[in-house]
Amino acid sequence: MVGNSEVSHTFVVDWAASWSSIEEVRAAHRAFDQASKRVAARGIAIQCLHSVFVTGDSRWICLFTAQDSNAAGLTANLAQIPQRFIREGVEVMALPDRVSVALSGRRL
Question: What is the pTM of this model?
Fold first, then answer.
């Protein structure tokens, strides 16, 4: 976790664009990482959890945690990511009994 405050909210960047190369996506991710460090230097908790580029849809999806929507918005602004591509989410956990049923091949 980056920053001093407790992280409690999950957010996603879901940015569909006409990316001309994977390097453009990497540049967007680097900009987000650098912005996160700048925000964290202010004592605001934020952490990138995972980032993936969906090539068939030209979508960059980045899952991150932040202490609140203001921290997420500030990071997006610093990284020059349009805020319309940032959404708050809710973490979903599989229950152990449902996982074992799913793995056995039976329908839930």
Answer: 0.74
